[in-house]
Structure formats: C-alpha cells, structure tokens
Amino acid sequence: MYCDFKGIVPCPSAQAIARQRYKCLVYAIYPLTCIFSVCSIFVPTYVGLVGNLINTMIAMVWIPLQAKPKSDHHMTEHSTSQSGSVFSIREILRLMKFPGVMEVFIVKVFAGLPIGLFLIMFSIISMDFFGLEAVESGYLMSYFGVLQMVVQGLVVGKLTNLCTESTLLRLSVFIFIGVGLGMALMRTVWHYCIVAVPLVFAFSTLGTITDSILTKAVPSSDTGTMLGICASVQPLTRTVGPTIGGVLYKYFGVSSFGYLQLIVNIGLFVYLLKSKIPLREMKSQ
Asked: What span is annotated as the signal peptide, if there is one (predicted)?
C-alpha cells in the first residue's frame, strides 16, 4: 500500500509487475504477432497461404527437373524395384544392419522422445501450468522458434567444423541430462525461458549430427531412403506423443517430463561412453 493526494492506493503485486514487464517485452519483440492477435484469427492463415504460394513459385522456377545424374537415377530405380514397394520393412532392416546405424538411430529416437512429448503438450502446459493466455503462449513459442533459427544457423555449423561427430553426439545427450533436471525443477515461465536455451542447442545438434552420421554410414544410393527414415522420427513422436504426454501430465505433472528426460539420457550417455560406434564411416560408392 502507498499514499498519495487522492488517498490510499493498493500497491501492485510482484506477480502483476512481472506480468506487465513480460507483456511489454513481447509486444516490443513481436509486433507482427500483436497485429495478428488484434486483427483476426484468420490473418495468420492468410499469411501462411501467401507464403506457401511464394514457396511453390520458387520451387517451380529454381528446382531442376532432373536433380540427379542419370546413372544415379537408374541405380535408384533398380534399388526400388528390388524392394518391391515404396515402403519396405526389409529395406529398412537392411539399412539398419550397416555398422553403427542401428545404435545411432536408437539414440536419435529415444534422446529426443521426452522433449518431443513435452513440446506436443506445451500448448496445454503453457496455459494450465504457467497460467499464460493464448497470445502469450504464442509469444513463447515464437521465442522458441527464434532460438532454433539462431542455433541452427549460427552455432551448429561452426561446431561441426571444430569438433568431431562423436563429441557433439555425446555433448548433446549430456546437455539433455541437464535440461531434464531443469525441466523437473522449473516452476515459472522465466525458468522455462532459461531452460529453453540449452534445450534448443541439444535438440538441434542431436538432429543434425545423427542425420549426418546415418547418411554417411550407408551407400550413396541409399541416402534418400535413410533421410526418409530419419524424417519419420518426428511423425512417430507426434503419433504416440499426445497419448503418452497426456497420461504423464495428468497423473504426474510437468516435472515428469523432466525426470523422464533425465533418466533416458543418463542411460543413453552411459551407452555412448561404453559403446564403440563407428561414427566416422565414409560413404560407400
């Protein structure tokens, strides 16, 4: 409480001051999002439509019709005809038998699974646990997206020139351990903003390094197939994520995602230290 000439005026609480500062920050950083929230819910849809049309025009103009040499094209057709179909379990199992492929793919799937479950449930967690409104939740997701752009564009590329793939793989899993501990202890949105920095770094590094290792470990003719298998990890997480994430959040709370992240990545880190995965396989011709 404080007094002025008009009488006694209630002093704003620390939570109200923090919320006001947060609103000022996000309105200063993300004016475009503010326009979307003021105008209409359909404005982002229209902007996305225009962006997709532009991307379609760029693809039609700049992407060549023949992206591969004819020899590689015939080799790919021969490999596809042998598999019998576009989706072949036998073909996937054949690729998994190459040295180091199965081990690295297991690390790729399980290291990112707990954080994938958390991100799937984040829209609910942000409003229910953090107490944010829909617009503020959008700002927080924008913050996460900006971090991803900065890390993938400026950090990961330089680290790949300075460190080996094995070092970066172990580093990303080790950072995930700290991220899991931070997620288990976080209580406010500011805690999440701090945890998001190493989270994005580990998440981006893990995806880039594992894709690089897996594509190098298979013959050149199977590069596209391996990239497709790597890309299937995210849809798989989105398929099982809502069910598993919903159960974890309902019965164990937000901290369960952090503890799951911590336990899984401790096991993977010990596995990487003890195993001798050939991470420097050269691409077969």
From this structure: none
